[in-house]
Amino acid sequence: MIPGQGLAQTPEPPYYAVIFTSLRTSGDQGYGETVDRMMELAVQQPGFLGVESVRDPQTGLGITVSYWKDEASIAAWRAHGEHRQARERGRSTWYSDFELRVARVERASRQAR
Amino acid sequence: MIPGQGLAQTPEPPYYAVIFTSLRTSGDQGYGETVDRMMELAVQQPGFLGVESVRDPQTGLGITVSYWKDEASIAAWRAHGEHRQARERGRSTWYSDFELRVARVERASRQAR
Q1: What order of strands is seen across the sheet that includes strand B95-112?
Q2: Is the N or C terminus of chain A more exposed, i.e. has fewer CB atoms within 10 Å?
Q3: Cβ distance A10 to A106 under 8 Å?
């Protein structure tokens, strides 16, 4: 499965979630290509556990939740050069508004049929 | 703004996030009406701080993140009668797969332009 295209398979808590909610500006402006590249890179990072991502094409509202082993793995991904550049373009070009929250997942329950 | 239709306005951390990711079955079967009712009820609950929700109509993947003051407010909403009934229909009818994670938000940063 392509990362972010379905439900993430995460281990037993505790682990960390990075909740990124955003509103897109209009026009692609290189966004789609960069998202694909960031997904490709993220899954290779130490401590990466999974990602779930949805955007409503009509409203531009998107939610991406990535899951990480610990705060150190989040910090390392945050310091990655290509990721830093992508965030800069996000701030300048792709998002009219966003919020990033870092949270410690304390419990989880799943149902699959 | 309609709850869940934009970015939530949350206070300074710490607070709690309930991350609900799901895959919808096909057909509405009363789903849309119940979502509207649950949003209407949720915002009235003590300790409710906000909600963000997106579903991709093509893949059926949805992410709803609701924010709460503390674990007690999450537990009270979980025990609400109408919410319990809605969850039961979710399990039996509306979702082919879902995961619910409860997480403590430790830090947050926002940019609005």
Answers
A1: A48-55, A61-68, A15-24, A95-112, B95-112, B15-24, B61-68, B48-55
A2: N
A3: no
Report residue A62 as tokens. 């998107």
From B41's Cα to the closest Cα of chain A, the distance in A is: 22
pLDDT digits (tens, 9 = 90+) for B28-52: 999 999 999 999 999 999 999 999 9
pLDDT of residue A32: 95
Predicted model pTM: 0.95
How far does A25 lie from chain B, in Å, by closest CA? Answer: 11
Residue of chain A nearest B14, judged by CA positions: A103
Q: Which residue has the tokens 């439900």?
A: A7
Tell me the residue type at A70.
Answer: D
Average pLDDT over residues A61-76: 98
Q: Which domains does chain B have, with CATH numbers?
A: 15-105 (3.30.70.100)
The complex scores an ipTM of 0.95
Measured CA to CA, the distance from residue A110 to residue A9 in angstroms comes to 10
